[in-house]
Amino acid sequence: AGEYDVAVQALAPLAKGNDDVAGEARHWAARALIKSGKPAEAEQLLTSVKSGKETNKYSAQLALDLGDALYDQPKRRDEALKAYQSLVDKFPEDKLAAQGRYLCALTALE
Question: Mean pLDDT throughout 85-98?
Answer without folding.
Answer: 95
